[in-house]
Design brief:
By secondary structure, this protein is an alpha/beta fold. 29% of the residues lie in helices and 18% in strands.
């Protein structure tokens, strides 16, 4: 099981190709990425009634301007809640899959549902696997939570899977120093059957990243915002996740 080669060739638009009139993770941003020929990275959260929704934050305030959380709102209500700067509501994974339709690679991040990268997961992974069951196109799944990646190995072993990884600065994460220290070493890579990591760009010089790459792991990175950052990242990473500028697409 390996990533489709397109994941290593086409730069991946972070939360799709978002900008004015096309909010992050929106159908408009997905359409823009497909039209431009970029790969796409999106995020998944679970609605109150068990639907896989394409949305980054746990809360609705920043992106929709309303109180509440994705986890406590039904899929129908989320669909009727416009994203700021758009007349589109929060899309389902099925809607995004229909829009992409296999035209470009799609990298899907499962947001942690446990709250501390623990084992209290399952419903989002099941919803995602069901949505992807008939999808015909290059797709891969990842999560910061290794339990989610392990669950995807059981539910959809044919899908390439990876770990989203970082420097795990304690001040940026809610689960405490001990768990941050543990995750920083990327200890679960082999156990979950991963074939890639998507690592924090500013931390690509970590020896563990080099060790995994030498052992055959594909290395993606997040989030690149200009050409200088891209040049630096590509000294280590096989590909980038980007936003805010237009990286070149190799011929």
């Amino acid at each position: 099981m390996r990533l489709d080669p397109s994941f290593l060739r086409l730069p991946l638009a972070h939360r799709a190709l978002h900008g004015p009139g096309a909010p992050e993770n929106s159908r408009a941003a997905v359409r823009a990425a497909v039209a431009a020929g970029y790969g796409i990275e999106i995020d998944l959260q679970l609605s109150a009634d068990g639907a896989a929704m394409v949305f980054h934050d746990y809360g609705l305030e920043r992106l929709c301007g309303v109180p509440g959380t994705v986890r406590t709102t039904s899929a129908a209500a989320l669909a009727a809640t416009p994203l700021l700067g758009s007349d589109e509501g929060v899309p389902t994974l099925n809607e995004v899959l229909s829009t992409v339709a296999g035209e470009v690679p799609l990298l899907i991040e499962l947001k942690d549902q446990d709250g501390a990268m623990g084992p209290d997961i399952g419903a989002l992974e099941a919803a995602m696997a069901a949505a992807l069951a008939g999808y015909d196109g290059p797709v891969a799944v990842m999560s910061f939570n290794p339990h989610s990646v392990a669950r995807m190995a059981a539910l959809a072993p044919h899908l390439p899977r990876g770990l989203t990884t970082s420097s795990y600065r304690v001040e940026d994460w809610p689960m405490g120093a001990a768990r941050c220290d543990e995750l920083r070493g990327i200890p679960d890579y082999a156990a979950v059957g991963a074939c890639f990591i998507s690592h924090e760009a500013a931390d690509l010089d970590r020896p563990r990243v080099a060790e995994l790459k030498a052992a055959g792991a594909d290395v993606l990175c997040w989030t690149i915002r200009n050409a200088d950052q891209e040049a630096a990242a590509r000294r280590v990473a096989d590909n980038i996740t980007f936003e805010g500028y237009a990286p070149a697409i190799p011929g």
